[in-house]
Design brief:
The chain is mainly beta. It is 13% helix and 41% strand. Strands 2, 4, 5, 8, 9 and 10 form a six-stranded mixed β-sheet that branches. Strand 30 (394-404) and strand 31 (408-412) form a beta hairpin. Helix 2 packs across helix 5 (362-375). The radius of gyration is 23 Å and the shape is globular. The protein starts with 8 loop residues before the first strand and ends with a strand. The mean pLDDT is 86.
Amino acid sequence: MWISLQPPRIDDVDPDSFAPESTVAVEGRGFGESGRLSVDQLAIPQENIRRWTSNVIIFVVPQRARSGLLRVTTSDGTSNAVFVTAEDDIPVRFRDRLLEVSAVAPASAEVGTLVVVQGYGFGPRSAMAELSFVGEEIGFSVSAGRDLVLEWSNRRIELVLPHELEAGDYELSVNGDPTDSRLTVTSPSDAPILGEPRQFAVRTAVTVRTPSVEVYAVLPRGLTFREQPQAQLIRENVPSRRMGVGPDATYHLSSSEDIQRIDRVVLMERRSVEWSFDEAGSSEILLEPWFRTAYRDYLAKTEDIPRDSSVVTELRRGLQLREPVIAIVRAVHRSVVAALTPDLHGVHDPVEAVETDQGAGAYAYATLAVALARSAGVPARRHFGILLDDGGRSIPHAWVEFLVPGAGWVPADPALGDGLLSEDIASFRGFYGDDIAQGSFGRLDDRRVTLSIDGRGVPRLYPAGSMREPDQNWAPGILRLEVPGHSFPDDVESRWEPPVLFGWFD
């Protein structure tokens, strides 16, 4: 019964490129007895589905199927997305291929808003298609496979400008070919203030004994984004070779009776961030179809985010959902701080914490905040990493970001706001003010490192294989051991050492 209540999960699609009338198998778990199978948001007709079991779906490709994201939807939720390619969409380059952009609307736009590019010669939507923004000193590319790309055809591209795109004037390039069209990207109306950088040396290690099989270890690779702009590998001790899958993240361990240990240190830079909101934007944008499609991964119910639980439903009744988005997310932050009791070693499940009146750890605070925001229609995601407390200890921690249209991803730390760490928080008060419960919304200091973000994990090496994660997962979606086989061998022994900040430099 527990398994049946989880959303479906796709592990493998065979083949991942197809022709009309060919047969495709989708392997995974939690498919149930029936549901909806879609590619590029178009449902596969029921008459094309030849088999549907809890672990396997077999279907015949319709005549007009096109490339895009394949998903399985059941009464328990929607699965992860896997990009599949129609063979007719695999592009063939010709030197004289005509490429023309006739219109870009609007010609000036903020990140997070919808832009339409019209013309000819864009090619089909495939795993290789991309739209690039080429500036004088910087560039950025968006793959056609991202949810932010709402439509891609030979004549039309619709996309939401990613928040990673910096303000500036850009020339558009389609599939590597430049065009004469330009787009001006403007900063959001509300922009954060970033502090001076602080550097941390982060050590991660795992010990493995694998006598019968080869094992692949995946460790944090060092995420980079606006508040955390640099991550550099400075030391590495491995018994075997590092693979070329992902930057400095994946390691191959040969079968051996000996104990093998991976020890790596990454130098990471972090900046504090402070938001100041001057404008109150409407919440009507949350209902726009393009907005909900672009950010559906951050609105979904997942296995560990109880968006539709009775606890979240009850808390949502206290929110005024027609208020500006910034007011909604402030209310979410306050509600979570009030609903949970802090405990550094408390339970991870926020529903359990509320229903049994147990103390909650940072993971529970972040999960409840994201679940409540998504229930209210606001995209939200969790950050997992390490926090340096007043005493110099590095503590596994979790916090959140809410997507506020017109601003961007706004941080909040409800667990710190409720005094999770200790009563001795003098230096924290120096940054957040006397009312930390209020001050920890829209502000984060520079004493934390992000190891993992919801939706930005390292892809599985063997989708149909098996894996083992730490009992206490400090970086969901990253820290794990994988083997190609369907079951993880019992004779593999492993011990993860928690990531540690063993050096920091102002």
